[in-house]
Automatic annotation (TrEMBL):
<feature type="active site">
    <location>
        <position position="149"/>
    </location>
</feature>
<comment type="similarity">
    <text>Belongs to the peptidase C15 family.</text>
</comment>
<comment type="function">
    <text>Removes 5-oxoproline from various penultimate amino acid residues except L-proline.</text>
</comment>
<feature type="active site">
    <location>
        <position position="85"/>
    </location>
</feature>
<dbReference type="GO" id="GO:0006508">
    <property type="term" value="P:proteolysis"/>
</dbReference>
<keyword id="KW-0963">Cytoplasm</keyword>
<dbReference type="InterPro" id="IPR000816">
    <property type="entry name" value="Peptidase_C15"/>
</dbReference>
<dbReference type="InterPro" id="IPR016125">
    <property type="entry name" value="Peptidase_C15-like"/>
</dbReference>
<dbReference type="GO" id="GO:0005829">
    <property type="term" value="C:cytosol"/>
</dbReference>
<dbReference type="GO" id="GO:0016920">
    <property type="term" value="F:pyroglutamyl-peptidase activity"/>
</dbReference>
<dbReference type="Pfam" id="PF01470">
    <property type="entry name" value="Peptidase_C15"/>
</dbReference>
<keyword id="KW-0645">Protease</keyword>
<keyword id="KW-0788">Thiol protease</keyword>
<protein>
    <recommendedName>
        <fullName>Pyroglutamyl-peptidase I</fullName>
        <ecNumber>3.4.19.3</ecNumber>
    </recommendedName>
</protein>
<dbReference type="InterPro" id="IPR033694">
    <property type="entry name" value="PGPEP1_Cys_AS"/>
</dbReference>
<dbReference type="InterPro" id="IPR036440">
    <property type="entry name" value="Peptidase_C15-like_sf"/>
</dbReference>
<keyword id="KW-0378">Hydrolase</keyword>
Length: 209
């Protein structure tokens, strides 16, 4: 295994509700075609819109790949821009998933903090990508919506001590194509990796294995 390569996992969600084709998974597949450069080992996964699957899948991705970064992508019917989510929330999960299930506790991790922020400076990512001439509008948000997106993000942030990101994309054609979204994801994730590697250059490394 080439240790100089960074491992990055990007997930999109499967169909739910009126989203019979989920723009997030289309965007992730388009990004996979583009890749993240030769020094990044990119793995993509489609996540079903089910709380219990997320509970087992997210930890298994961290354990299997030991990634530098995990980026979850979801669709928001209200979004008109690509939205970088700053934090995940622990409580307030009352919406039923595709299996008509929601957690009894209505929370992600019992006893976990109410909110976990990503270690990635989303404002900085937003600014850099917005000025890069990509032709896709990017914004920042502090509310990932208290459904599977937020739930997945919080779970990942909790497991990774903040080395996760969440990106909301608008539905296809409103206004961007899958290819547009894929190009934007590529640029955004590359910026995130750049910021993480800069941070690692300034922070003494703590190995915990």
């Amino acid at each position: 295994m080439d240790n100089s390569k960074k491992t990055v996992i990007v997930t999109g969600f499967g169909p739910f509700g009126e989203h019979t084709v989920n723009a997030s998974w289309v965007a992730v597949q388009e990004m996979k075609k583009l890749g993240l450069g030769q020094d990044v080992d990119l793995h993509v996964h489609e996540v079903p819109v089910e709380y219990q699957t997320v509970q087992s899948l997210v930890p298994s991705l961290w354990e299997r790949y030991h990634p530098q970064l995990v980026v979850h992508v979801g669709v928001s019917g209200m979004a008109t821009t690509i939205t970088l989510e700053k934090c995940g929330h622990n409580h307030g999960y009352t919406g039923l998933d595709n299996c008509r299930f929601c957690p009894d506790s209505q929370c992600c991790i019992e006893g976990g903090p109410e909110c976990i922020d990503s270690v990635i400076d989303m404002d900085s990512v937003c600014k850099r990508v917005s000025t890069s001439g990509l032709g896709v509008a990017v914004s920042v948000s502090k509310d990932a919506g208290r459904y599977l997106c937020d739930y997945t993000y919080y779970t990942s942030l909790y497991l990774s001590r903040g080395r996760s990101a969440f990106i909301h994309v608008p539905p296809l054609g409103k206004p961007y194509s899958g290819e547009d979204l894929g190009r934007a994801l590529q640029a955004i994730v590359q910026e995130m990796l750049e910021l993480l590697s800069q941070a690692e250059d300034t922070i003494p490394c703590e190995h915990e294995h």
